[in-house]
Amino acid sequence: MKKQQFFTAIYMAMGVSLMLGSCTKLDEHVYDQVLETSFKPTEADLPSILGAAYVPLRTVMVGWQGDFDLQEEPADIIVTPVRPNGWYDGGTYQRMHKHEWRADEWQPINSWNQNFRGINTVNRIIAQIEGGSIPVTNGKDEVIAELKAARAFYYSMLVDNHGNVPIVTSFTDTVRPKQSTRLEVYTFIEKELTEALPKLSTKSDNSNYGRMNKWAAHATLARLYLNAEVYTGTAQWQKCIDQCNEIITKGPFVLEPAFKNNFTTTNNTSKELIFAVPFDEIFATQNSIHMKTLATAHRNVLDLAAQPWGGNCAVPQFIDTYDPDDTRMKDTWIQGPQRNVRTGELILTYTKAVPSIDNTQFFDGFRIGKYEIKAGARGGLSVDYPVFRLAGIMLMKAEALLRTGKPDEAAVLVTDVRKRAFLATPAKATVTGAQLQLGSSYKYGWQNVDGSIADLQGGADIPFGRMLDELGWEFAAEGQRRQQLIRFGVYSRKIWFNHRPKLDGKPRTLFPIPQVEIDKNPNLQQNSDYR
Amino acid sequence: MIKLIAGVGIASWLCLSPATVSAFASDRPLHKKGKVAITVTGTVKDAKGTPLPSVSVQVKDSPRGTYTDARGAFSIEVTDGESILVFSATGLATQELKVGTQTTLSITMQNRTGNLDEVVVVGYGKQRKGDVTSSIGSVKAEDFTKGFARDAGQLIQGKVAGVAVVTASGDPNSTTQISLRGNSTIFASTQPLVLIDGIPGALNTVAPEDIEAIDVLKDGSAAAIYGTRGTNGVVLITTRKKGSRPATVNYEGQVNIQTIARKMEFLDADGYRQGIKDGIFPASFDKGTSTDWLDVISRNPVSHTHNLSLQGGNAQTNYIASVNVRQWQGFFKRSENEQLLGRVDVNHSMLDNKLKFNLNIIGRNRTYFAAPNYAYIYRQAIIRNPTDSVYNAAGFYREDPNAYNYDNPLRPIMEVDGETVQNETRYSANVIYSPIKGLNAKLLLSTVKQTGLSGYAENNKHRASETLRRTGYASRGTDYMRDNLMEITADYTRSFNQHRVTLLGGYSWQSVTNEGFGANNSNFPTDLYSYNVLQSGDALLLQNGAVGMSSYKNNYRLIGFFARANYVFDDKYMVMLSLRNEGSTKFGENYKRGSFPGASIGWRINREDFMANATFINDLKLRAGVGVTGTTPTASYLSLISMVYSNNRFLYNGQWIQPIEPARNPNPDLRWEKKTEYNVGLDFAIWKNRISGSLDWYQRNTVDMLYDFPVPVPPNLNGFTTANAGEMKNTGFEVLLNAEVYRTRDFEVNANLTWSYNKNTLVSISSDPKFQLASQFLEAGYTGEPIQTATHRTLVGGPVGMFYGYRSIDVDENGGWIIEGEDGKPKPIKDAKVNDKKYLGNGIPKHTAGLNLNFRYKKLDLAIGMRGAFDYQILNFQRMYYENPSVKEYNMLKSAMDLVYGKKRLNSPLAYVSHYIEDGDHWKIDNVTLGYNVINGGAKYLKNLRVYVSTLNLVSITGYKGLDPEVTRLGLDPGNDSRDKYPTMRTFTLGLNMTF
Lengths: 531, 996
What we know:
The structure holds two protein chains of two kinds.
Chain A: H1 2-19, E1 34-35, H2 46-54, H3 56-62, H4 67-72, E2 78-79, H5 92-97, H6 106-130, H7 140-161, H8 182-196, H9 214-226, H10 228-232, H11 237-250, E3 273-277, H12 289-293, H13 299-302, E4 313-314, H14 316-319, H15 328-332, E5 333-334, E6 336-339, E7 346-350, E8 367-368, E9 385-389, H16 390-403, H17 407-418, H18 433-436, E10 446-447, E11 453-454, H19 465-475, H20 481-487, H21 515-520
Antiparallel strand pairs in A: 2-4, 3-9, 5-8, 6-7, 10-11
Chain B: E1 38-46, E2 56-59, E3 65-67, E4 73-78, E5 84-88, E6 95-98, E7 104-109, E8 119-122, E9 125-128, E10 136-140, H1 152-155, E11 163-166, E12 177-180, E13 193-196, E14 199-200, E15 211-217, H2 220-223, E16 234-239, E17 248-260, H3 269-277, H4 293-297, E18 302-313, E19 317-329, E20 336-350, E21 355-369, H5 374-383, H6 411-414, E22 416-433, E23 439-458, H7 463-467, E24 473-496, E25 499-522, H8 539-542, E26 548-569, E27 573-584, E28 593-604, E29 617-631, E30 642-645, E31 650-652, E32 655-657, E33 660-662, E34 673-686, E35 691-710, E36 720-743, E37 747-764, E38 777-780, E39 792-795, E40 802-805, E41 808-811, E42 817-820, E43 826-828, E44 838-842, E45 847-857, E46 860-870, E47 873-876, H9 877-882, E48 899-900, E49 904-905, E50 917-919, E51 922-936, E52 944-952, E53 955-958, E54 976-977, E55 985-995
Parallel strand pairs in B: 1-7, 13-16, 47-54
Antiparallel strand pairs in B: 1-4, 2-3, 2-5, 5-6, 8-9, 10-15, 11-12, 13-14, 15-16, 17-18, 17-55, 18-19, 19-20, 20-21, 21-22, 22-23, 23-24, 24-25, 25-26, 26-27, 27-28, 28-29, 29-34, 30-33, 31-32, 34-35, 35-36, 36-37, 37-45, 38-39, 40-44, 41-42, 42-43, 45-46, 46-51, 47-50, 48-49, 51-52, 51-53, 52-55
């Protein structure tokens, strides 16, 4: 009897278990995510898919400690000094200014990560299109050409910053990539862009604004050739001129009558912009150049809906190079007394003087005002960030002409760009070929706390120094200065503000490969200046 | 010999034995309550027949008691035959005996067998303590920490060797942190699996007052039956169960006050003005008033707790119901936590006990105010200029227009509104069918539902309203969690001859779903709406990005089959084998299921013939076990290749559209971490069980360790992939010692000592060929702004938790740090290179110890709980940030004025250097409770009355200069004492316990 009961209980237990047999399945119930297996894209989804390739551009260019800082902080126009409310930040701004960055410095790491994020995303999308998981029936070649051009653009940033980076073109190949030389990367970009060009759109309107069209590709190539000597040891001035000519003669671009039009909240309508990274105060909020530069109290000048952080400002030595009649001076820098936009109440006064990188007051130094900060602006500006504009192409061509013995032709282009900056004093707009061959007016030397200059080097000895000055006035705070200083041989040679050249045989014109990446990928070798 | 004396009004039901009514006592007073009094006499002898003097004879639940005389004889009056006599003496097993119809008793007291017959809760069942072959820490209610307890964790603080219970924060909303035998995982949760009567819950699911016992399964062989959830140990909480006695009502009430245990000594207004005189601060910094900012935002909190329970019934049907109310205040103004917790547990048995039912319902309702960001506010209070005032002349909160991250600390407390309500309901039912003796089939069904509803509002004077130019902000959020569990188990126990066999088999199915919704809005027409009329905010219409909403939903399921067999031969040899096969939906396609075996053996050496002469040894048992357990990652879906529509938008043809991107680097091979644990232990009891304890040695090998492993970019999209590529080893030793130091009729001293040692080694971070790293270390911890560097580096082959930074050795003539360079030579910190960093200490204590002392003198008892941790370091963030006179914008510690290395005041930017790493060794006198049993049974209505005073966190003996050396010890960055840490409190409690 007992035995029978025992088995009854066992059978009952087994019966219940069998009833629950369906309760042994372990398939996942997914509610709030899109699984790759359930995502069936159509061509209508193409913009969403392509978009991912461009999104990293915003953080590449002006993200926190992004390319803007990477190009400006080591150069002679902008400095981030220690302020009463901080800005020492573990010494990173000091190291950037003094060219003492380390292999774990944030700015070069960010450049690496974000550019490769763009490259990997392009590779992923190309793999999905070619593998058929994203159906593209019409214009597949054009889409792929555009993506490859975008990838080449990211590489054009890397070849400039890190030089010897891996060339990765496959998404499915997950082995650790091999390092390429700077020359190989240069050659790759040139080839990719040249191949893509015939298939790229010649349109430059809303439909491909912020994307790689034919003109953006030409401009990327022009910039590559302009710096070819730095990248490869072989100058390519004529190739640069050829690319510039394509844009100048065939492109739909004209110089805006007002310099400022390139930097307004609605600068997407500028006829001068060839390639810009779009920003929006709601949808794409990373353009916080104003937050980093304005003093916190500036909030009460413009009734900002954000509290600025109050950091970087202009190097006084650079401010001194401006012609007083050059309207780009006031269009680029916020200076002097600042009054509330509604009441006129005096809130604060920015002074030119910046005593030292170690110790400044809240309102020392002129602030970046190039990008329109509208009243009531938020933490992100709606101003699109210009990467290439016609004035830039004209000055690239001018520089290439100047360096190939055609100073007078160069002077015509430079004069054309200067005209809108000297509307009140038109005579001053004209520059001659002879002038362009003079040195720089920048008083290179050590700035003492009282503003006087010690160890004065000046800029007279800089070949085509005047051209460098022109580039500075036109492109200050556009994230180009480091490249310019390297090209003009100033970067590793001159003293400015609280920066002294190392003169130790290590020019540091390339940033270090991020140590974290070397740690993860043994195929990578550190750039020679940092070994 | 039978002798019975009864009072006058004899109740007829007592006259079960006519012979007993043969004599009436006339020398005894009449029992006024009309009840019968019976006098029982007897003798007490030991096993050899020797009479035992001074044995305590007590009537249970009554104040009546006596002692045996020199001949072992006693005489005592009881109310009726239902009375129970309790015999106890030092070194002897306590015996209880129902009087029944006997009036002369002959008692033979056995030597105490320690607590071998005590019942220990093991996974899916119970076991005689004597048969246990694994390392299980068991704490019964009478040994719990007395007085105020935040949750179940605090009840066993310092009482179980190898179980570190840290009260890392004084926040009334935080719970204790339990970690077991060191850090054996770094990525998955380190919280142990907490089961309340077998159902997953948390340390605060039931009121501490309602807990009967807490058992901690420490080693892998015991926890293996819980499979993927067992690695961090299993805490089994047994709630108070049925009482088969007449209805009783118990009330326990407590009120406590708290004071801050230790304050960091910042400059007060006078000190600050002295600083101005000394040229540290500019004269303009004197704002002309004196304010103690910490005082402005804090208070002396008063909290109370009440617990009322009712139990009763008979052997067939019985019940317990309890209500627990808490009203706790936090140290910071307005921070509050109120909780109402109710529980009903009903048991019924029928068909001659063949069918048993249990129904249990727990309802918990918690309401708290945590709207302000107190950590940030606390920081603002300590760094604020002490000569500044709270309000300006116009009566508004005073703020500095140039300041960044420098806000009036009172304002964010007062200008917000908010409430979070959490409700939890747990229903569980189990049916046990026992058709024959020894066989039980059990079905357990439970469902747990948790809902949360939160509201938060900033009024239009709030700092953020001003900064962001909006008129108010409000949000609401709600979440809902369902945890359904079904378990079917069958167990069979049989003893024959010298054999005892227990078999267990079962199936477990658990499904957990989380979902939630939240919305926020800005620009309200009035502050009066608070967060109650979200749609009234104009931001919704303006669509300027100041509104938002979100929702989510996810699910995971855990399905397991398990079996266990126990075999005991002659109480001498014991074997346990268990196996769990478990699957989790959280894992990759190829790794859904896994098996977790456990095995242990025991040998009771003292029962061997060769030990027969060692009579001073009462118990000596050698145990050895091995078990495999797992750890699941915290989030669901990590193994899936999923895409997200990103809010990181893309401008397409004039429209900002959402691009679709991979959510993460996919890893279809994601699986659980596995830990294999070896445990060898010795249980012993000597000298009539006066000293007993355990020694345990363990080694825990964690393989397939989960971590966000750094992967190269390119080819990966993200720099980190969640993967199983690490290995870690923990080796340790634990000692538990219980001593009955002294015991007479009036005076008793007991002691309980725990000590544990742990050594941790990171064995590998590239055990999976896909995640080969060039570097053989992991960095973790972060100093925060503005120092901005990692604090820890764990090197393969070394222990987790190493501090890694510059070693400061001196200051130069200007007060700048001099550090030790890579070559060992001094160099100024401004020339420091990455390679100059050194290992500066470790944040995990090597030794932890606990000592609990219990004294009783007559009705007075005193319990002292102490614990300590030794041989570890702490990075004192408060000193690192505030002991630097070169940072003038913020207030600083008084010690910032001191000369560093006796040479010079510091004049160097904020930096992470070894100067701020201190030894954390400490000894804490934590819980001291003094109680008095005013009434111990007997009175007509009030059966027991006990009053007590109690403290928590009374004294810390330490050289550490920070607030509290008990800082978080989890993860890869243990020992970081955050500058914003909620200060720990010293608690004084007055409590009352009454049974009716």
